[in-house]
Amino acid sequence: MGARTVRRLLSKIGALLLTLFLSSVVIFSAVLLTPGDPVVALAGGVRPTPEMIDAIREQYQLDQPVWVQYLSWVGSVLTGDLGTSFVYKTEVIDLIAPRFGITFLLVIYTLVLIVVFGVGSGILAAVRRGRVEQAVLVGTSLGVAMPTFVVAIVLIWIFGRVLGWFPVYGPGEGLLDNLYHLTLPAVSLAVLYIAYISRITRGAVVAQLSSEHVETARVRGIPPSRIFRRHVFLNASPQLLSVAGTTIASLFAVAAIAEHAFGLGGIGVLLTEAAARKDLPVVQTLSLMLVALFVVLNAMVDVVIAIIDPDSARPRRDA
Amino acid sequence: MRISDGDVVARRWRNGALLSAVAALLLTGCSAPEAAPTDEPAPITELTSSLPAATTAVDEVRWGLVEGEPRSLVPGADYNFVWPNICDSLLRVSPDFGIEPGLAERAEFVDPVTFVINLRQGVTFSDGSAVTPEDVVFSLERSRQDVMSPYFGAFVLVSTIEVTGENQVTVNFTAPDSIFREAMTGGPGAILSKTFSEQQGPALGTSAGEILCAGPYALESWTPGSDITLVANDGYWDGAPLVQKLVFSFIPDGTTLTNALLAGEIDGAFNVPPASRAAFEDSDEGRLIVGPSTASFSFGPTRTDGPGANPKIRQALSMAIDREQYIQTVLNGLGEAQSTFVAPFTWEGSEAASVYQAAYDALPEPAFDLEAARALVEESGEDPSVPIRIAIPAGSKELSQTAAIVQAAAQQIGLTVEIDERQAADFASLFLPDPAARESVDFLATAGYQETPGVLTYPQLFVLPPEIGGIFNWTAYADPEVVGAVQAARTTPDPVGAAEAYVAAQEIFAPELLQVTLAGAYHTTFLNNRLTGVVTSVASYSSPWALHLGGQ
């Protein structure tokens, strides 16, 4: 490992820590600034008496200045204590752990669908101009315009109620059953992304197909399949990968819509409910997890791109 | 009594509406059963408070909780349908809101200030250990000494709770309390194991801990975000349940719940979305059971000044709303008009029911009269150009429709209503004791219900001064005659005497419309055709409603 790589790695870690710190401040203040009093969440759905409110404020340090609350929270997070949910009165980690698996599986499933159908149809549209391209373009225009929850309703109706092929509720038990239950949720989440990725793939591949080095390769008589693999796809992939990084991170955030519609009970639903109930420890932990995931994934994508295409790491581009 | 804080009752039908509406739009070609029926729904002619007891055993029943995941299974820590099957109370609410023996064979006042509890012989917790008088004292003291307990109010007149015999506990009072016995049918009278609860500490009843009680089922597991599994308590004093495993799934989305019920993936649920009534009624998988309830939709004033505090404005708004249309629109016909804010089912099982009913019948029914309403606005002396703000919790379809109906009605009589839709925590903050929280609004719309009998329980919160329990008396309503009569009702040991004192007060405060009641909502249950034996009235909030559940 060269000094340059180490320096790059260190600066990435530094950027990660800075991003996490800034997001933690933003998230902490955002949750505090939204209307509503966390005492209500702590009181547990009953109308608190003044004695009860005072007792709660003292117990949860809500009577302390904001910066004291922030520091005390950061302090406990750094020592591995994510805090206790205001609403459920259980450790935040115990709330997240059982829910994380199902969301993770859903995101991976969705991602597979996106890669297979999004990238697949994009390449197809770029290579087979004409009818196929038209069909993909029309399909993707529809796809980007379909909100996830609408897709979910249509899928539940057709495949759950009319045909009865797929379950419409719950995550199921065991991996195979999980996948069976997650099919409709994954498809409903994937539709929009498939359309989006398909269009990006098509654009990137078309650009490469008409580039000089591909022309040159063609003139030199290299077989088309080899040209596609070595020149077109490889050169188009950095663009796809950078989109993929943000896609995965955002899937964790939007998974809530499918989790809600299909009663999956993952971390997405936990986050939206916690935000509405002002369950500060849960919101803060989950938001930070998402930010960290986003930053880490992007860093990983950068590394992979640098491996595939070392040129892109240097400040010059191929002419 | 529970008032929805946007997180409790109001959320029970949330979101379903929007989704069904979109589905209907999208799928008109496929004749979606969720689409609004073109003809008016049939009126409900019969209410069912319980289904015949099951006769055959069932391995597993899956129950949907549209209220979402409970915060805790400790009675009172959160409203939910799970704990009443785990924790038995000293007395039991019957499906028709009467009082039956529970863990106590007898629990009654032997004189106006002495309440004696005689425990059932040989009754045990679900682990087989005996329920002792010490457990009773522990459980009651938990609520009495803890200001954080929602049941604190039920014990304010209690002076001591002592073991007075091998199977006996005596509760002494500083003054007679006519509603204490009724409270013992619900969460305030639920008995927990002392040793076990003390071992659990703060984890008691949460997803990280356990709970030990003497109900028909015992907690087996709780997977956060997914489900709670109960198993039959074979040693239950009133016979073992026929269902081996009762699994509660958290399905906070009304449409998801509807789909899961209609597909047979979930066996049953309470508080199913009224918007899907037609789909439930047409289902081959299960049936919709409509039961009596104390639940109602209403809106009420939030502060001492402004248009909301003016009774004439409240009366005018009330007169401008067509109740029949309200019930069709908001409840899809699953409710009825109500003359005051205490529903008649509240006194259904009372010894003094005839006194309450006669007084209720004498109250004028809510009239729909725009002319008279306009005249009242004129008389009120309020400036009609000042907008009236009504707060509702975000995500409740029914309350959002309610606010829209109030807004339209107000416009008819020359008033302007602005709707202030708030997120759950923000809406719930309106219920904090500090009046400053309510300064920015004039009314708030809620759905509430009462889970145990006791006519006085709810209205006293509105008519008494705040310092003696009127926690929702936000307009500083103070009528000495009403206060005197309500206090007399609470401290009169004889039920008929208490009822007479109460109805005298009701005659004075009812016309003031301290809550403008829009409709009583029926208790709805959807149950798979293979099952029976469920309590289908509002008593399911506080009684072991799944005790007789099982196969047809």
Automatic annotation (TrEMBL), chain A:
PROSITE patterns, per the entry: ABC_TM1
InterPro entries in alphabetical order: BPD_transp_1_N (IPR045621), MetI-like (IPR000515), MetI-like_sf (IPR035906)
Domain ABC transmembrane type-1: 100-301
GO cellular component, one term: plasma membrane
Residue stretches spanning the membrane: 12-33, 100-124, 136-159, 179-197, 240-262, 282-308
Compartments, record wording: Cell membrane
Bilayer disposition of the protein: Multi-pass membrane protein
Similarity comment: family membership: Belongs to the binding-protein-dependent transport system permease family.
Gene Ontology biological-process entries: transmembrane transport
Name the UniProt record assigns to this protein: Peptide/nickel transport system permease protein
Entry keyword set: Cell membrane, Membrane, Transmembrane, Transmembrane helix, Transport
Superkingdom per UniProt: Bacteria
Pfam families assigned to the protein according to its UniProt record, in alphabetical order: BPD_transp_1, BPD_transp_1_N
Keyword field contains S-adenosyl-L-methionine: no
Gene3D superfamilies in UniProt: MetI-like
TrEMBL record, chain B:
GO cellular component, one term: periplasmic space
GO BP field: peptide transport
Domain of life: Bacteria
Record bears the keyword Signal: yes
CDD domains reported for this sequence: PBP2_NikA_DppA_OppA_like
Pfam families: SBP_bac_5
UniProt cross-references to InterPro entries, sorted A to Z: Peptide/Ni-bd (IPR030678), SBP_5 (IPR039424), SBP_5_dom (IPR000914)
Regions that span the bilayer: none
Keyword field: Signal
Solute-binding protein family domain boundaries: 99-429
A GO MF term: peptide transmembrane transporter activity
Endpoints of the signal sequence: 1-35
Protein name from the UniProt record: Peptide/nickel transport system substrate-binding protein
